Amino acid sequence: MKVIGSVDAAQALVGQELGVSDWLTIDQQRVNDFADVTGDHQWIHVDVERAKAESPFKTPIAHGFLTLSLIPVLSKDTFRLENAKLAINYGLNKVRFLTPVPVGSRVRTRVELTDVAAKPGTGSIDMTVKHTIEIDGIEKPAAVAEMIVRAVF
């Protein structure tokens, strides 16, 4: 895990991998709960029997936005901000869902700091953090997302 304690420390890490998370299993209950929260009950996610019979994946798959929403929990062990007054999710530059995540698979994130933009006179920075969501046993990633973290030191 990388510790970022200042603007200079963040800038020194640009281009480096910050860490790789532990694996997290995507079970059907998590997918169902996400469907309930978002109202997205598409059969390919929540109807196990129909997915087995009709889906090209032969099993339900996680929602793409569920995969994306796991970034905070997955990345918490890859880097940490110290001495920051606050840090917020400022947005996303680019998101691509490359491979469906079958229910029962394990995912993790590989985290790289790709850019740091200092905001002069504010003590804040925008860190562009690339998250590559990997699926255990599958070469092509589930998703790649460029997230922006605004930190105030």
Low-confidence stretches: none
Radius of gyration: 17 Å
Please report the distance between the alpha carbons of the first and last residues.
20 Å
Shape verdict: elongated
Characterise this structure.
The protein is α+β, with helices and mostly antiparallel strands and 153 residues long. The protein has one domain: Thiol Ester Dehydrase, Chain A, CATH 3.10.129. It contains six helices and eight strands; from the N terminus they run βαββαααααβββββ. Strands 2, 3, 5, 6, 7 and 8 form a six-stranded antiparallel beta sheet that branches. It has a two-stranded parallel ribbon with strand order 1-4. A hairpin with a 2-residue loop joins strand 7 and strand 8. The protein is elongated.
What does the secondary structure layout of this molecule look like, with pairings?
Blueprint (H helix, E strand, L loop, with lengths): L1 E3 L2 H6 L4 E4 L3 E2 L2 H11 L4 H4 L1 H7 L9 H6 L1 H5 L3 E3 L4 E12 L8 E14 L4 E12 L2 E15 L1
Parallel strand pairs: 1-4
Antiparallel strand pairs: 2-6, 3-6, 5-8, 6-7, 7-8
Task: Kindly summarize this structure in a few lines.
With 153 residues, the protein is α+β, with helices and mostly antiparallel strands. It has helices at residues 7-12, 28-38, 43-46, 48-54, 64-69, 71-75, and strands at 2-4, 17-20, 24-25, 79-81, 86-97, 106-119, 124-135, 138-152. The strands form 2 sheets. Strands 2, 3, 5, 6, 7 and 8 form a 6-stranded antiparallel β-sheet that branches. A two-stranded parallel sheet has the order 1-4.
List keywords for this structure.
elongated; 153 residues; 6 helices; alpha+beta; six-stranded antiparallel β-sheet; Thiol Ester Dehydrase, Chain A; 25% helix; two-stranded parallel sheet
